[in-house]
């Protein structure tokens, strides 16, 4: 059968660099760090005392006051980004056939803060749980509540694959529309891991930075002195639409969602394959799915977390797959600015890829001070300063605990 073409017609985000797409992009291209001291709770007892939090987020812009207590922060963030995307795409909710609109969302953990607070309250304050405990906590509830709000009755589920969750959601949205299962899918991801359980848990793994004296330079992908990722939070959403459907309603089109790849490292619970085999496979399969070759790719938004092992494996994979074409690429790790949004990373970084393509600007990898001899620095990592470049094809990589890998391919129309 002939696959239908799929395009992006609406976007929205709330993340550590801004509460709108415009604010996010302005700070991203200017190399602004979203890191600072934790304000969500008192971090005095924790080894890490900083994170990339949202600033001045007001949930009342997107929901009634009575609803807020029913929703975990990760759901509130989802409501914000999806509302922006729906407004951006110009969809007439009175006319759209809700049976043909789906919601496929990504979340790595879901309501971690709700879980932590309820268990603590049960132990210290009251011998019962809130009736909202389960529906606030479960990882699929954000997508379910979004569909209820807008009357979208098409395919509806949540992808949970750690840090690859939102990228898997985008790929599933692509494939559902390709196969004619829906005309429009609202997709993306959200996460709210900046809480005591999240920080303490990752501290115990020694996965996050403890550079408390200088939070803004703590996320330093590919730098020799990197000491772990910086926790981020937030959400990004896309309206993904069948091409002819979008043209018929006169929708603006940001980019074509051209392909996606999925693979597994089959190596370790939390560490990447040191040779980047799974990372190489997922990029290879994503390009094949899009009908492209390595020569076609202009930009890679890499997973680039600022961890000792991951930042070595991914460039190895790029070098092996792309060969000499690797030195013609522009690469950047935008986690150096946003922090790591866990299950929402693929959405926020996919949005960065689309905006880079639209604007012809490669956002930087900030906080690079000392070269790492184990990393091929002949690759163009766009260190410390954005640069202009025509981008016709961009790919976004996300790799999650458990060895889950996902790569999304975006193409300029």
UniProtKB/TrEMBL annotation:
EC top class, as a word: transferase
Has keyword Acyltransferase?
yes
Could you confirm whether the keyword Transferase appears in this record?
yes
Which GO BP terms, alphabetically?
A: fatty acid biosynthetic process
Biological or metabolic pathway of the protein: Lipid metabolism; fatty acid biosynthesis
Q: A Gene Ontology CC term for this entry?
A: cytosol
Catalytic positions?
A: 163
- Highest taxon, organism lineage: Bacteria
Kindly state which keywords UniProt assigns to this record, in alphabetical order.
Acyltransferase, Fatty acid biosynthesis, Fatty acid metabolism, Lipid biosynthesis, Lipid metabolism, Transferase
Q: Which InterPro entries match?
A: 3-oxoacyl-ACP_synth-2, Beta-ketoacyl_synthase, Ketoacyl_synth_AS, Ketoacyl_synth_C, Ketoacyl_synth_N, PKS_Beta-ketoAc_synthase_dom, Thiolase-like
Location of the Ketosynthase family 3 (KS3) domain = 3-412
EC id: 2.3.1.179
Name the chemical reaction catalysed here.
Answer: a fatty acyl-[ACP] + malonyl-[ACP] + H(+) = a 3-oxoacyl-[ACP] + holo-[ACP] + CO2; (9Z)-hexadecenoyl-[ACP] + malonyl-[ACP] + H(+) = 3-oxo-(11Z)-octadecenoyl-[ACP] + holo-[ACP] + CO2
Task: Output the Pfam families linked to this UniProt entry.
Answer: ketoacyl-synt, Ketoacyl-synt_C
> Molecular function (GO) terms listed?
3-oxoacyl-[acyl-carrier-protein] synthase activity
Q: What family classification does the UniProt entry report for this protein?
A: Belongs to the thiolase-like superfamily. Beta-ketoacyl-ACP synthases family.
Please give the function described in this protein's UniProt entry: Involved in the type II fatty acid elongation cycle. Catalyzes the elongation of a wide range of acyl-ACP by the addition of two carbons from malonyl-ACP to an acyl acceptor. Can efficiently catalyze the conversion of palmitoleoyl-ACP (cis-hexadec-9-enoyl-ACP) to cis-vaccenoyl-ACP (cis-octadec-11-enoyl-ACP), an essential step in the thermal regulation of fatty acid composition.
UniProt name for this protein: 3-oxoacyl-[acyl-carrier-protein] synthase 2
- Give the species this sequence originates from: Draconibacterium halophilum
């Amino acid at each position: 059968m002939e696959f239908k073409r799929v395009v992006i017609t609406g976007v929205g985000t709330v993340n550590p660099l801004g509460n709108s797409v415009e604010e996010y992009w302005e700070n991203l291209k200017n190399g602004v760090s979203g890191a600072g001291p934790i304000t969500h709770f008192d971090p005095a007892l924790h080894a890490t005392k900083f994170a990339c939090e949202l600033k001045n987020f007001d949930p009342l812009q997107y929901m009634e006051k009575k609803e807020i207590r029913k929703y975990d922060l990760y759901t509130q963030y989802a409501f914000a980004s999806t509302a922006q995307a729906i407004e951006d795409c110009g969809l007439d909710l009175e006319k759209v056939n809700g049976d043909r609109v789906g919601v496929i969302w990504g979340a790595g953990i879901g309501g971690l803060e709700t879980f932590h607070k309820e268990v603590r309250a049960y132990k210290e304050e009251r011998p019962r749980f809130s009736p909202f405990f389960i529906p606030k906590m479960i990882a699929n509830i954000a997508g379910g509540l979004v569909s209820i709000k807008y009357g979208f009755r098409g395919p509806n589920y949540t992808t949970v694959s750690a840090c690859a969750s939102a990228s898997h959601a985008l790929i599933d949205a692509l494939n559902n529309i390709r196969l004619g299962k829906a005309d429009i899918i609202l997709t993306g991801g959200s996460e709210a891991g900046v809480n005591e359980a999240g920080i303490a848990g990752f501290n115990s793994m020694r996965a996050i930075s403890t550079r408390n004296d200088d939070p803004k330079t703590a996320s330093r992908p590919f730098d020799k002195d990197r000491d772990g990722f910086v926790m981020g939070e937030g959400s990004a959403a896309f309206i993904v639409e069948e091409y002819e459907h979008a043209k018929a309603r006169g929708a603006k089109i940001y980019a074509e969602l051209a392909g996606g790849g999925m693979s597994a490292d089959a190596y370790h619970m939390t560490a990447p394959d040191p040779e980047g085999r799974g990372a190489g496979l997922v990029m290879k399969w994503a390009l094949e799915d899009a009908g492209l070759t390595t020569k076609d790719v202009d930009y890679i938004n890499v997973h680039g977390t600022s961890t000792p092992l991951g930042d070595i494996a991914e460039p190895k994979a790029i070098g092996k797959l792309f060969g000499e074409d690797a030195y013609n690429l522009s690469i950047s790790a935008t986690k150096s600015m946003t922090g790591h949004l866990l299950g929402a990373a693929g959405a926020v970084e996919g949005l960065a890829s689309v905006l880079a393509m639209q604007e012809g600007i490669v956002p930087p990898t900030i906080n690079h001070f000392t070269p790492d001899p184990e990393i091929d620095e002949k690759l163009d990592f766009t260190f410390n300063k954005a640069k202009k470049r025509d981008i016709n094809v961009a790919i976004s990589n996300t790799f999650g605990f458990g060895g889950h890998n996902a790569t999304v391919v975006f193409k300029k129309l």
